[in-house]
Design brief:
By secondary structure, this protein is an alpha+beta fold. The protein contains eight helices and four strands; from the N terminus they run βαββαβαααααα. The chain has two domains: 70 residues, Alpha-Beta Plaits; 182 residues, no CATH class.
Length: 266
């Protein structure tokens, strides 16, 4: 048994972790994967040489490099299955993200705020990641890739629509967004993400997928704060541009996530 550690510079959220798991699913000599998201490292317990593993990781273009490969004679396999409680928590987080996707997208169009619409798609992107992890459990690699391909194209289409709409609003004479709605709904979304973070932390799980989910949700808080700040700037400047700028940044994040998911279907 070998213990090989890789440094993966672009692995910083659950979407990358799930992509790596799915990319390595075809390699039968892998016994276990141990993810260290904060330090961007992956430890693989396997038989045989590490070259096929490195080749699969390189295909994802996450800037992977070998740290070390040593013997793991004392390795004892442990179950990699989710516990019932962890699975239930992930379903709860998924439900919260879907709820706020619907709420933010609806109020975003009503209030003429692209920041809210973009943030709703960020929530949808989170839901797709959690959904891929939950629905694809136990399925074949081919099925997982089909699911990832469909989700990736759907998310990419939404991001492209968002960019087109932002450009149209930059060039056109649009109504100033309703800053009150922007701030209020973003505060509610912030509370929702705070609840997700509380649920994940309350599990006290040290499993990589749960730790990564906490990091992912923490990052979402920044997007919520960005829309709140944009709402305040819309009020102070009486201008649509702060809202459009925040929307552009979040749409870019959503589009990048879509391309990462699509890599799984290759």
């Amino acid at each position: 048994m070998q213990k090989t550690t890789f440094s993966i510079a672009k692995m910083d959220c659950p979407s990358e972790e799930h992509m790596i798991r799915m990319k390595l699913a075809d390699l039968s000599d892998i016994e276990a994967l141990d993810f260290d998201i904060p330090n961007r490292k992956l430890t693989v317990f396997h038989t045989g040489h590490y070259d096929p593993i490195l080749a699969q990781l390189d295909a994802l273009q996450f800037d992977t490099s070998l740290v070390e490969s040593v013997s793991a004679a004392n390795y004892h396999p442990t179950s990699a299955n989710h516990t019932q409680r962890e699975t239930r928590l992930l379903w709860q987080v998924l439900a919260i993200n879907l709820f706020f996707f619907i709420l933010e997208s609806a109020t975003g169009f009503i209030s003429n705020s692209m920041g809210l619409v973009a943030d709703s798609l960020d929530m949808l992107a989170d839901s797709l990641v959690y959904g891929l992890a939950l629905f694809a459990v136990g399925g074949s690699t081919a099925r997982k890739k089909r699911i990832a391909k469909s989700a990736g194209y759907f998310q990419l289409a939404l991001a492209v629509f968002g960019f087109i709409e932002v450009i149209r609003r930059f060039l056109g004479l649009e109504t100033i967004p309703a800053f009150q709605t922007m701030i209020l709904i973003s505060i509610l979304a912030l509370i929702g993400n705070g609840l997700c973070l509380y649920l994940l932390q309350s599990s006290k799980s040290k499993e990589a997928h749960m730790q990564a989910s906490m990091i992912f949700t923490s990052n979402d808080v920044l997007a919520n704060l960005g829309v709140i700040v944009a709402g305040i700037l819309v009020y102070l400047t009486n201008s649509k541009y702060p809202d459009l700028l925040v929307g552009t940044v979040v749409f870019f994040i959503v589009g990048r996530g879509a391309f990462n998911i699509l890599k799984l279907s290759e």
